[in-house]
Design a protein that fits this description.
Elements lengths: L1 H8 L13 H18 L13 H14 L1 H6 L2 H4 L4 H30 L11 H7 L11 H32 L1 H14 L8 H6 L3 H4 L1
Helix pairs in contact: 2-8, 3-6, 6-7, 6-8
Length: 212
């Protein structure tokens, strides 16, 4: 799970009390890793790697693009053509993200074509689900460009919106420690084990679910 990975890599397990000075950064990374895993089927780790594998490159370039999304959309095209190293690096990251996303989608399409009996039950991420909808036999089939556009929207709108929502929720819980304690006690009572949440367990978290 992403949460356990985060706690372990941030070395919080060994501490009784933790002060998180840069919560915004933590939540942006948390949501980005979640989107990579659930949206793209890419098992990105909490700590970014340093090699040049496709997974690490995807994570690295995606992180740059996610951090610069506002600049990318508010600055006119002519600005991005200026010979400024920082702008050129950002633009190259965006190009790399699009290129990687296109190649990953093409590979998933090839895999689906080989597995003729590939059913919805075997599809574990949104990208593969969208790729499966590019079947030309269906009049509502998506074009490859539409798959890429949908995934880009999920990535950037989803990352920013989700991280902001989590930040607001945590802030409100901090301002209302009594409600925070009630939610915490409910988790201890209804989900005491470390195996993770199930759908049945989640349904019993009546105070926690509105927070999420």
């Amino acid at each position: 799970m992403v949460y356990r990975d985060m706690v372990s890599k941030e070395a919080w397990e060994e501490k009784n009390n933790v002060v998180v000075a840069d919560l915004d950064r933590i939540l942006h990374r948390f949501t980005l890793v979640m989107i990579c895993r659930c949206g793209f089927g890419m098992p990105v780790e909490w700590t970014q790697g340093i090699d040049h594998s496709e997974l690490v490159t995807f994570d690295r370039e995606l992180s740059v693009a996610a951090r610069t999304i506002i600049l990318r959309f508010i600055l006119p095209d002519r600005v991005w053509k200026l010979p400024i190293q920082s702008l050129c690096s950002i633009m190259q990251s965006w190009k790399n993200v699009l290129s990687l996303m296109t190649s990953i989608a093409a590979r998933r399409q090839a895999e689906l074509s080989l597995e003729k009996h590939f059913g919805d039950g075997n599809i574990a991420d949104l990208l593969t689900k969208l790729v499966s909808a590019t079947d030309g036999a269906n009049k509502y089939a998506l074009e490859p460009a539409e798959v890429t556009a949908n995934m880009m929207s999920l990535l950037f709108a989803g990352n920013e919106t989700t991280s902001s929502a989590l930040l607001s929720t945590i802030t409100l819980l901090a301002l209302h420690p009594d409600e925070q304690e009630k939610a915490y006690q409910e988790i201890l009572r209804e989900a005491p084990c470390k195996e993770g949440l199930s759908l049945s367990t989640s349904a019993r978290l009546r105070r926690v679910r509105p927070c999420l």
